[in-house]
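My main concern about presentation is that the manuscript never shows what a single data entry looks like. In essence, backbone conformation is discretised, so a fold becomes a row of integers matching the chain in length. An entry of this sort, consisting of the sequence and the corresponding backbone structure tokens, reads as follows:
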Amino acid sequence: MLNASIEMNPDRVTAHKLNNLLQSITLLAGMAALLGLLGWLLADIKGVIWAAIIGVVCLLVSPRASPRLVFKLSGARPLSVAEAPALYALVKSLALRARLPTLPQLYYIPTQAMNAYTVGNPQQAMIAVTDGLLRGLTRRELAGVLAHEVSHVDNNDMWVMTLADTVNRLTSLFSLFGQLLFFINLPLVLFGKSGFSWLAILLLVFAPTLSVLLQLALSRTREFDADLGAAQITHDPLGLASALKKLHNYHSGSLRRVLMPGRPIPDPSMLRTHPKLEERIRRLVSLAEREPRTIESFSPIDEDLVVFPPRLSFGPRLPQWFMGWHGH
């Protein structure tokens, strides 16, 4: 089901993998250290201990929406093997290559938007694909996108980002508590009788913002790692690069027509959940040992279109814009 393999540079693969791992550990450690520092400012070592205890409890007992419920709210419905045998065969091939313990369940979203989403864990994963994605990508490009989602599952990125979100929420809670405590003691601060330092006050105020920026940076790093994982699964980094370029052109064109016709859209790098397209393509193309390595020399591949057989009917399409969860 997959295309012929492209010879990949093992040194670059190892370097990218190590870089992604170190960045992820550093960013998570930075978020945890920021939370611990807030605990220290509020109650010394006891505050650090309480921050750790509350974080573990929240991670274990916090209510989570059922993946099936999330998909149901989006208008997605399960796809059976009989409805999309070729698509399931492709996902099965990717899952076997990634050594997932179970085959992900496929869901279909009847919208023209081109996107794919993943929820769950390696034991119970669900991948949703839109009608626009299935009709707009070639088989090679679709394999790259699905391998990216499979890589998210294999890396358990949903759990990693849940952990980061828990730390971020606790940081905001501790910051709010610290700011309330400061205002209660404001008269003492004005007369110089309080132990609050201006550095501590600034940290209490800006800690949530710093935590969010670290969380966004972690999300971008996990996207890089999913791209790398997809290239390793398919042995075809250029297939995913082609899909990313096509998806970017579709989404940016739609956004520009709706929000800023005739003008470029501002692109604040620090506030993005996904890395810039140019950097993602540059990294993917660099993995190919005997292929063009510059963005300028790269062009999408348009052969071998993947479409549903005409006999299948998926009902009416939803509006083009679908506000979903984490995806491409």
In short: The first strand starts at residue 77 and ends at 78. The two ends are 23 Å apart (CA to CA). The longest helix spans residues 10-61. The chain has one domain: 10-287.
